[in-house]
Structures are given as C-alpha cells and as structure tokens.
Specification:
- The structure is a single chain.
- By secondary structure, this protein is of the alpha+beta class.
- The protein folds into 2 domains: 1-101 and 176-224, no CATH class; 105-157 and 164-173, 2-Layer Sandwich (Alpha-Beta Plaits), CATH 3.30.70.
- 30% of the residues lie in helices and 17% in strands.
- The protein has helices spanning 2-26, 57-66, 109-113, 148-156, 182-186, 208-220, and strands at residues 43-47, 68-71, 74-80, 88-92, 96-100, 127-129, 136-138, 192-196.
- The strands form 4 sheets. A two-stranded antiparallel ribbon has the order 1-8. It has a two-stranded antiparallel sheet with strand order 2-3.
- A hairpin with a 3-residue loop joins strand 4 and strand 5 (96-100).
- The longest helix has 25 residues, at 2-26.
- The relative contact order is 0.20.
- It binds iron/sulfur cluster (3 copies).
- Keywords: 4Fe-4S, Electron transport, Iron, Iron-sulfur, Metal-binding, Transport.
- It comes from Thermodesulfovibrio yellowstonii (strain ATCC 51303 / DSM 11347 / YP87).
- Residues 43-73, 92-124, 134-166 form the 4Fe-4S ferredoxin-type domain.
- This is Iron-sulfur cluster-binding protein.
- One of its GO terms (molecular function) is 4 iron, 4 sulfur cluster binding.
C-alpha cells in the first residue's frame, strides 16, 4: 500500500505543475453523441476513485467554464473561482480523494423535498429536472431559500447541494455542461466519464464520507 500512496502523491505534484498549461492549451468545446439524442436517459459524471489523484483540475475547469473570472468586462480563459465549481473534491486522510457531483437521481429526493408549488404550465418546483438536459436545476426567482433540497440530498444521497451563504439558495449543480462535460474532457488522469445513471452501481448516491470510509478500509485497512 505504501507504493500506491507514493504514486498518488507524485501524480498530484505533476498535475499541480501542469494544470495551468493544461487549461490554457486545452480549454475548449467538445460534443458527445448523446447531447443531441432524443432519448431521455439520465446521464451523470462517474468517478473512478482508483484513478483520481485529488488534483482538482475538474473543479478549476468547471468553475472556469461556468463562472469565468471577468476583468474589465473581459472573461479570462481558463480562470474561474473554484467556490462555484459544480464538482467538489473531498480529500481524506489516509489519502482518498472523492470528487462529489450530482448523481441525477431518478427519484430526485431534492425535488420532492421542495415546498414550492409546481408551476401550472411546466410542473416545475423551485428545483426541478430540466427537460432538455435531464439534469437538476434551481430557479432562484422562485426559490424561498428554505434549504430543504440540500437537507434531503445530504440525508439521502450525495450531499452535493451547496447553499450560497449570502442568499441561502442552492448554487447550481452539474448540468453536464449542456452536453459537453468539460471536467470529463480535462481530467488529466481519465478518472471521469459520462455514464447512464445506474442506481444499482456500487457507490451510487453515497456521500463522500461513506465512499472514503469504504475505500480506506479496502486500500489501507483503516477506518477514516
Ligand atoms: S477527478 Fe481528475 S481532475 Fe478531478 S481531482 Fe481527480 S484526477 Fe484531478
Ligand atoms: S438528491 Fe442530490 S444527488 Fe440526487 S439528484 Fe438531487 S442534487 Fe443530485
Ligand atoms: S459536467 Fe460540467 S457542470 Fe458537471 S461537474 Fe463537470 S464541468 Fe461541472
């Protein structure tokens, strides 16, 4: 296990040095075939925890894509505030890194917990599954900042919903970049992929702490 630990740290170092270059050189658009598909299958970003080094390139790429830093009215390519990333890497000791991202739950406990009445025309609560992307979105205009969605997600699933400390409303969660998942494209270790949601898969809907506890036992024989 020592060897594995050492290799992971080496990876992190290498990634840290290369991350800026990577973002500057590779930031761009790519399309996936499913983006145009009329089939309404649920897709999510799946993490291979054996490959993730905790380099956080995914956080940097996600925030740069969705919330680019703007200076003098111009957005700076490849630069974003990781606070707004829709994928969040949780690091544990012993060395286990768990990127947390919406699992696009078919039964969506977050949506069910929202007390805002469905809009008559669209059937949407303040948090809803978007028809086009089949991802979970929040409408800040209708949201009453009660935090019920975040609580339901934390108690029943991944706990991925983060509430903005100023507004008390959920920050946006993963929308699969509208069909061009940037984190998947730019992860330097190919730890991320887009897959169809399978509730039977091993770590589906689990919190980072639960996943890390399980992996720590497997990899290091220790409980976190
Ligand atoms: S998923 Fe990839 S990009 Fe994100 S921290 Fe892990 S290795 Fe880095
Ligand atoms: S409960 Fe959490 S993980 Fe599941 S769809 Fe809602 S936000 Fe995503
Ligand atoms: S698919 Fe896009 S929105 Fe989702 S976590 Fe990755 S970069 Fe962020």
């Amino acid at each position: 296990m020592k060897g594995k630990n050492f290799t992971r740290r080496e990876f992190i170092k290498a990634a840290g040095a290369g991350a800026t270059l990577l973002l500057a050189n590779k930031f761009g658009i790519h399309s996936l075939a499913w983006a145009d598909s009329k089939k309404k299958t649920l897709k999510m970003v799946l993490v291979d925890y054996t490959k993730c080094t905790g380099c956080r390139t995914c956080e940097a790429v996600c925030s740069a894509y969705h919330n680019p830093v703007i200076v003098n009215g111009k957005s700076l390519p490849g630069l974003g505030n990781p606070v707004y990333s829709r994928i969040r890497v949780h690091s544990f000791n012993p060395d286990v890194d768990i990127p947390n991202v919406c699992n696009m739950c078919p039964d969506a406990p977050c949506v069910k917990a929202c007390p805002v009445e469905p809009e008559p025309k669209t059937g949407r609560r303040a948090i809803y599954r978007d028809e086009k992307t089949q991802t979970i979105q929040n409408d800040p205009k209708r949201c009453i900042a009660c935090g019920s969605c975040a609580k339901a997600c934390a108690e029943q699933r991944t706990g991925v919903i983060e509430l903005d400390p100023q507004t008390g409303k959920p920050r946006p969660t993963c929308n699969l970049c509208g069909g061009e998942p940037q984190c998947v494209k730019h992860c330097p270790f190919n730890a991320l992929s887009v897959v169809e949601v399978k509730t039977s898969s091993k770590f589906y809907g689990k919190s980072p702490k639960k996943i890390a506890t399980e992996l720590s036992k497997q990899w290091y024989g220790k409980v976190i």
